[in-house]
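Late entry, evening session. Most of the bench is empty. Finally got around to the prediction I had been postponing all week. Sequence below, unchanged from the version circulated by S.P.
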Amino acid sequence: MTYNERLENVAVLGAAGKMGSGILLLTAVHMADLRLQNKGKTYVLYAIDVSDEALTGLMEYLRVQVRKLAEKKTVWLRQMYADRDDLIENFDIIDEYIMDVLKIVRPVTAIEAAYSSNIVFEAVNENRALKVKLFTQIKQNSARDVWFFTNTSSVPIHLIDEEADLGGKVIGFHFYNPPAVQRLVELIKTDNTQQEVVDFAYEYAKNLKKIVVPSNDFAGFIGNGHFMRDGLHGISEAEKLSKENNIPLYQAIYMINKVTQEYLIRPMGIFQLMDYVGVDVMQFILNVMNPFVDDENLHSDLLDKMMEQGVKGGQYSSGAQKDGFLKYEKGKPVAVWDIDKKEYIPFDDFKADADAMLGAIPQSVVPWKATLKMKNKEEVFSKFYNDLKATDTLGAAIAIRYGLRSKAIGEKLVADNVAHSTDDVNTVMLTGFFHAYGPINNYFE
């Protein structure tokens, strides 16, 4: 079966979810483009989810997003529709393309639709038993040589392969959120993964213009392997700061969040990032990973308390941020959750004291956003971190300790053979988490 033939019939499980909708969008557009280049061929993409209402919303999401994508490639679309005398204006061509993409997608709530697919993309939650159940059902009822692409960010692929008896026809294809925007894909194969599945995965990723980083098949892989430990370090630093300085934990959380954003030059602080991912999601992934490590305990009592109090973070379907460790107004953090009082404490109540405790940051600091198009990053970062190391403040000490810990986490991923190289670790954190520099560096030495 050729590449194009393999993509003539595809299914996405969990298609209406945050990750599934992005995967569906990318795949639907790619399939529509293949159809325009291979006229006469039929392409079918099943969007499978449990909710009719969610699927209705998904179709509207597709309509809006496909229009945006079509507007960026009108020259190419004019070439593809050159034989259509009835399509004259750009808006005619764009409307026709939107219709062509949507005609490929079949929204359904029945998993039986996947039985006729050549490829099944899976984007359900990080529940190994559920993934195995769905894959087993499809394999047992399909007469086709179906391949399974799982978007799991933490579950070892070989366990899914073995428990669903997939015979090496499964691969980890971990998109980053949101899939339509993020360029990174972690590709995880097992010792049993068939080479033709791997070859197809690379070609598919290339056609989607993704950056592929291979990870070995270990729970959490590279991205969550680093982020989960980085987050646990942030929690540990906040708890330590609170105890040693006799300040409320909520104030310490604010301070660590500030240091990890401003001093480490990241797009957001570590607690804001945990809110973005979801406190509940982070706890769940840690629970998935923990049984597979022998030399550390990937667990946080603070996360447990947050969950007990119903503070979960995450995002609304609109993309707006839900309250978690931090409370948000118009997308910006304005308060911190107090686990003792079970309420949010406004920044204004303690910010001045907290900032004074951290001390002044060197004037050579640059905000993360300013680094995006910077051509002399190495020079700028070296200057700032040399200044920071010469600064005798609490904030500087925390930042240096944090940077060294982040580096140690990355180096251990390589030493444990999770990542193939330091470059792979740095690439994941640079492209998947938008860090200004990779964690494995010499800035903090």
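Two things to note before I forget:
Residues 223-245 form the longest helix (23 residues).
The domain at 3-215 is CATH 3.40.50.720 (Rossmann fold).
Will write this up properly tomorrow.
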